[in-house]
Specification:
By secondary structure, the protein is of the alpha+beta class. It is built from 3 helices and 7 strands; from the N terminus they run H-E-E-E-E-H-E-E-E-H. Strand 3 and strand 4 form a beta hairpin.
Length: 132
Amino acid sequence: MRALAVAIVASALLVAPASAAKGPSFAFGREGGNIVPTKVRIAASGRVTVDGRYLRTLSHAKLEALLAVALRQRFFVLPKTIVCPGQLPDFATLYVTVRSGARARTVSQRGNCNKRFIRVYVALQSAVGSTL
């Protein structure tokens, strides 16, 4: 019985570091249209990749600041698809995914009409030093 208790405690200690790495994560980029698609990923560890290539690592404080921007802009209640007036189907679409805890949402926008979406997108661009 004691050996079982020790095994349970040991397995809990091994799992603890993995759960400590959990935090907000993000993805953004563009797809479709007549332009080369680009994917930027910001892992919960802060690791930033652009099209699969490592770029840099963001601090936990920066990840939390990005999540705060998304929450202020009420990102989790934005429509999943935003098509701005006058946009042609061959225009590229921007997208943002935010994951935090049990919540995850991807929003895509063709055009530049939703200020809340754009504020989140620009904050992510700024954080990673991207101009896409």
